[in-house]
Specification:
Number of helices: 17
Number of domains: 1
Structural class: mainly alpha
Length: 456
């Protein structure tokens, strides 16, 4: 007989099983949670400087304008609208909705992103409610109270949209039993990949990892192959047309986008923190270069733009491999130095506050940074405790949620990853693991109190 912790997983492979309608969270629970989450997001959006926009945000807005005006994804304005392959179409296509409704006003984009962010809370909390109802209220509370996604609701960046797509991809097989859910899950992985290209590998890895986790729950091997195939087919159905479009433009395969990978890998050989790109202004530190000749070559490529953007991978990838051969201690050591920054921090470094709210370097700013660093550290430690509990008890559901988190931690090791924004799309799952970790602490506290009473 399967253990109780594994029993719900069998629903994933039932072709005709009806959806589960467990209701642990009351209407009041939902209203309080979503009300608090919405209030915090509105407050952050109001405090955000409406005139600030990142370089990525400018590129996304330009691409969205080109979709509206010319039906082509381009970062260049009229009259040329030269098609771009450096970014996926997901987020620019999403931006066209608020832009057609509200124009280019930031407030309209913020309003739509707040709604999308609340949908992520609903999807993840409902999934926990269905599969692990005893953890539902705590998971909903953490999802609603976590302040970090609000910062991304305020700016034109991909985080809010890609987080919802990943949440749907991971949760749908639990919320909607049957084979169709796997195909739709793959479609959601595809949409997430078109929003942020690096998620393409996460989707494939998560599907394969999920099948491996559930191997003990399958009646026959053919079922595993069919479900894995359905999810991968769903992903391919979404991504393949865009890959073909890029192939026609470039004459080579670029599944979603091209041009950034080599530079990010090279940064990953020396980066310790994000101080080299404060406020979007790049100033490489001296330790980034192994020789004056290398500095001159990099500046020629990046600063003087002597090499076309789409050809820069051919320069940076060999340079990256050379760095690992000639300076392995420095290169691999940088992974360890910056890895905590992937998870810690305020997650607000890519937005600007209205003047006077949090002046840079002020006492208020320092307290703000310290509090959110500490909060992220607590969440991370609780999530680790929850992961250990899930591994020990072979809790398939929480291990399933952990797959994208573990993939993010490993995949970003060699890449530029000093910004906590890169882990934001999997942060809801980290919070679910933290909820499990809190239960572990509460259980241990209860046992300790009981043992004290016995000794007394």
């Amino acid at each position: 007989m399967a253990s109780p912790s594994l029993a719900p997983a069998s629903r994933l492979f039932s072709a005709a099983a009806p959806p589960v309608s467990k209701r642990v969270l009351s209407r009041r629970d939902w209203l309080w949670a979503l009300g608090i989450a919405l209030a915090w997001r509105v407050l952050v959006c109001l405090a955000c400087d409406p005139n600030f926009i990142t370089d990525d945000g400018k590129a996304y807005m330009a691409a969205a304008h080109s979709l509206i005006q010319a039906g082509s994804l381009s970062e260049m304005g009229p009259p040329s609208y030269v098609p771009t392959v450096s970014r996926g179409p997901g987020y620019p296509a999403f931006l066209t909705l608020p832009m057609m409704l509200f124009g280019s006003r930031l407030a309209g984009i913020q309003a739509v992103q707040c709604v999308v962010s609340l949908l992520t809370i609903v999807v993840v909390a409902r999934c926990v409610e269905v599969v692990r109802p005893e953890r539902a209220r705590l998971a909903l509370a953490l999802l609603a109270l976590a302040p970090f996604e609000a910062f991304f609701c305020a700016v034109q960046l991909t985080e809010v949209l890609v987080t919802l797509c990943i949440a749907l991809a991971v949760c749908l097989p639990w919320l909607w039993p049957g084979r169709a859910a796997w195909f739709v899950s793959g479609v959601c992985w595809g949409l997430a990949a078109l929003t942020r290209d690096i998620v393409l590998a996460m989707g494939v890895a998560s599907v394969l990892g999920a099948v491996w986790l559930l191997r003990g729950e399958m009646a026959q091997r053919g079922v595993r192959r069919r479900h894995m195939a359905l999810a991968l087919v769903g992903l391919a159905v979404v991504v393949a047309p865009w890959t073909w479009r890029n192939y026609r433009l470039l004459g080579e395969v670029a599944p979603v986008s091209k041009g950034f990978l080599g530079h990010l890998l090279w940064i990953g050989t020396w980066e310790r923190d994000g101080s080299w790109a404060d406020n979007g202004v790049v100033h490489y530190p001296a330790y980034a270069f192994s020789s004056p000749q290398e500095r001159a070559r990099v500046e020629e490529v990046r600063t003087m733009r002597r090499v076309p953007f789409l050809q820069q991978d051919k320069f940076f990838i060999p340079l990256t491999l050379q760095r690992y051969r000639t300076h392995p201690v420095q290169a691999f050591g940088s992974w360890i130095v910056r890895w905590p920054r992937l998870w810690l921090g305020t997650r607000s470094d890519l937005m600007a506050w209205r003047p006077g709210i949090l002046p840079h370097g002020s006492k208020r700013w320092l307290l703000f940074k310290a509090f959110f660093y500490a909060l992220n550290a607590v969440v991370l430690l609780l999530a680790l405790a929850g992961l250990v509990r899930a591994i020990r008890r072979r809790d398939v559901f929480f291990l399933w949620l952990a797959l994208p988190v573990l993939w993010t931690g490993l995949f970003y090791l060699p890449l530029h990853s000093s910004e906590a924004r890169y882990s934001q799309p999997v942060y809801p799952f980290l919070l679910c693991l933290a909820a499990l970790g809190l239960e572990v602490l509460r259980g241990n506290w209860t046992l300790w109190q009981g043992s004290r009473r016995k000794l007394a």
